[in-house]
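Can't paste images in this forum, so I'm doing it all in text. The chain is below; anyone willing to post the predicted structure tokens underneath?
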Amino acid sequence: MSVGAGSQLTTGTPAGPDQVTPGPLRPAAGLSLLGAEPGSAFTEPRFLVRRADGQVIPLSRLPYLVVVAVAEAVAEATAPGTGGMRTGGMRASGMRAGGADADLIAARVSQSSGQLVSAADVRALIASQLAPLGVVTAGMPGQVPARAPDVPTGAGRKPPGPHRRTVVLGAALALAAASGAALAALAVSRPGPVPAPVSASEVQTAAWVTRQVSPGTTVSCDPVMCGLLRQDGFPAARLLTLGPATRDPLGSGVVVATTAVRNEFGARLATVYAPLVLAGYGAGPDRVQVRATAPDGAAALTAQLAAQRALLASEGRALLQNRTIRATPAARSTLRAGHVDPRLMAILSVLSGQLPIQLVAFDAAPPGASAAVPVRGIQLGAASASSRSAILAFLRVQRGTYRPAVAAVTRGAGGQPVVTVRFYAPDPLASP
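Text version of the structure:
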């Protein structure tokens, strides 16, 4: 695998992984995330959550991000089309029967906060603060948690009034209970003005873009979607608001195709400007797609992607000849098909020259993605904790193109510790 100009793969020092296995994590039934507290006099920003009993609880930023990560992970795993939660294992990486794994939550919070958060940090916050407050539960569904204390809202602090906009995050959150399946709606109140009502698919798309698209990529969007992305934490300087006077979206790497954007550009959006779908949510008028733009035209991008896939298929077959690599049948098939992101291929090629690794599972394709979109993530197995530490050390010293968005120890489908590696979208080939 050749390394691009200006990029270099380097090595680093080990870091010890966390060995403790937590109970599955879930948001408390009926919990609402209200966002930043308006008009707070505190030096540090405070965030509010509301329990099903109506109690509004203030949290500092890091505990709030943990709650958001748990809520989003469980909501995604139970959204329509995922098959819901299964007691025999979760479809999504980092999910366990009944809830999310602390390792997955640590990886998500590390990404959203910009600081390294370990699974032990997540467990400590939940045990000392979030579980006693009745905000997050840990353990199998049907277990009776300790009674949550009443929490005063503070002198002079009023619960958020009806002017705060509340939107449903995805579909109903399925919570398995001892008496059967109980449904609870997970609502997120987004502070600040939003130009128009938003759909569940727009909320899901904004969350996907914030987590999956590189913060260095310029994203084109309509005013409503740009507002959602700003509130979700995507860099405002990287958002390009589209309007009637916009000639085309080619000044960006990614365009979020809502109904307003499709109406603005018509068929040329998919056939000329942005032919590659990275992800999509919803159906009919509510359909929202995340598309990669093609500055040189759709035909040129199609040809480039076909050539790239043929090269990656050849390199994938060669990689499987390496005696230091073991791969599951599904992982072998993905490599031979040339369906692996070139950045991930480069990492695997160099890493396998340093120590034995197992290719456990590549990520599933994002919902609604084009067949030409390569997978950007993988779970790597290793013989020991020290080997996992060595893999993490290698990943965390990478820079530029080869710096992963996620590099953390999580739990595989069978509960075994694995190193999860994931790169941001889009593939550099598909973005200016």
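The mean pLDDT is 77. DSSP finds eleven helices and 21 strands in the chain.
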